[in-house]
Design a protein that fits this description.
hpI Integrase, Chain A; single chain; two-stranded antiparallel sheet
């Protein structure tokens, strides 16, 4: 039946469909030997690394509707690298020590191979067949990076990455490849810690959640990865603050300074320790937690101290089901609070905490080993037998709490003029005091 395109009505379409059904039934009753052999049919496949195109035809009688769907999903470079079993085995071995180290070395290995237009397996084969050539390649790479102005620490990490990858195949580079001034950090050369006025300005620029993050770092000395780890699966929980309780739907502090326990899983040095938060930092934490309670978020011992928004869960990607903020997100929140007014790194808040306690130590308010302990460092051999025990004596914990309370004025200062005024007032009191009053003060 001949017809012009676009001129047939629904009745003609119906007759066409009936004719097609009759022809189909005739074909089904025909001899199977007349059909083409499916075993000889050529099957075409798309390359593995190229995105596949899936076309789907939807028939709509009377509308002639045709829709096409394209699957353009691409695998990331990280996924392609970890698809290799040897790379995955090497990565997992590093991750058992530190996930951040494993991720960093995986990126650097891929970048090294991209520069030299080879795969990691080709690099390993070259080292196993000709170790001298592979060593020359690495040494020339170091020379190239130094000439391009890369920091010495980054160049040194590149050497460690390649050596670690080759060591996975029992290949050891014996030549000592030197990097000039390894400990030199040009990006941190002119960095200084904020003063009291700058800290006050930072707090005025921050939101409620950002204020808590800044206080935990600047007034308790916590690392960003303690608040939330690299993938947002763990972090600081409410049960890690035993002095905070929920009474009648309100978060309250039962003892000051508020103690913060850093579990072994969150500690960079791999040991459990604790620190404290100042009075103002504790008030900021309670305000943030009470705000979350008032918004209907249920809080309990395992709840995150700093959490993603309870209501808005869109645009979170693979983190939608995680109750902690990843370390990268925490650092970004602090960095966005600094910018564009300040160019500091988010990590500058920890040196601020250490500097203020150092000032308190110089005035006899803080003990050196206590300061090292609050920073999360293991300290000297003497500390191993005192502050680095799993369970500290109550007398020692009480003295550490008192030392931190004496040092709060150096951490909680918000304006240098206020501190100066307090010093001048103290001097006037001493000058006007009688000998009996001075004896009572002393």
């Amino acid at each position: 039946m001949r017809y012009r395109r676009g001129s047939c009505n629904s009745r003609e379409l119906g007759s066409l469909l009936e004719e097609w059904v009759r022809c189909k039934q005739t074909d089904d009753r025909s001899d199977p030997t007349d059909r083409p052999d499916s075993s000889k049919t050529k099957i075409t496949t798309t390359p593995r690394d190229q995105p596949s195109e899936v076309t789907e035809r939807l028939t709509d009688v009377g509308k002639n509707k045709l829709s096409t769907k394209k699957d353009t999903a691409k695998t990331t470079k990280r996924t392609r690298l970890l698809a290799n079993l040897d790379i995955k085995r090497w990565y997992d071995n590093l991750a058992r020590g530190s996930h951040l180290t494993a991720e960093g070395r995986l990126r650097r290995l891929g970048r090294f191979c991209d520069v030299h237009q080879m795969t990691p397996m080709q690099l390993a084969d070259l080292a196993m067949k000709d170790l001298r050539t592979a060593t020359d390649l690495l040494e020339d790479h170091v020379t190239m990076m130094e000439s391009e102005g890369y920091s010495p620490g980054y160049v040194d990490e590149q050497i460690k990455t390649v050596k670690s990858w080759l060591r996975h195949f029992d290949v050891e580079i014996k030549r000592k490849i030197r990097v000039s001034t390894t400990n030199f950090t040009p990006t941190l050369q002119n960095e200084r810690v904020p003063d009291a006025q700058e800290m006050a300005e930072i707090y005025s620029r921050a939101g409620l959640r950002e204020t808590v993050i800044i206080s935990l770092m600047a007034k308790s000395g916590l690392r960003p990865e303690v608040i939330g780890n690299h993938d947002g699966t763990d972090g600081l929980r409410m049960r890690d603050m035993p002095d905070l309780v929920i009474q009648e739907g309100v978060v309250r502090c039962t003892r000051t300074p508020n103690r913060i326990v850093v579990r072994r899983e969150l500690s960079k040095a791999g040991h459990q320790y604790f620190t404290f938060s100042t009075k103002s930092a504790t008030n900021q934490i309670m305000s943030y937690l009470n705000d979350r309670l008032s918004r209907g978020e249920p809080l309990h011992g395992d709840s995150a101290v700093v959490a993603p928004d309870h209501v808005y869960k869109t645009n979170r990607g693979g983190n939608s089901a995680k109750e902690f903020l990843p370390t990268q997100r925490i650092s970004k929140l602090v960095r966005d609070t600094f910018r564009p007014r300040f160019a500091w790194r988010p990590y500058v808040l920890r040196p601020y905490f250490d500097t203020q306690l150092l000032i308190a130590e110089s005035k006899g308010k803080m003990v050196h080993d206590f300061r090292v302990f609050f920073m999360g460092h293991k300290g000297t051999m003497e500390s191993r037998y005192t502050t680095n025990k799993g369970v500290l004596p109550e007398v020692l914990m009480h003295e550490m709490r008192r030392a931190f309370a004496r040092s709060e004025e150096h951490l909680d200062q918000t304006d240098a003029s206020d501190v100066q005024e307090q010093r001048l007032q103290a001097q006037r009191i001493i000058q006007d005091a009688t000998p009996a009053q001075l004896g009572h003060m002393l």
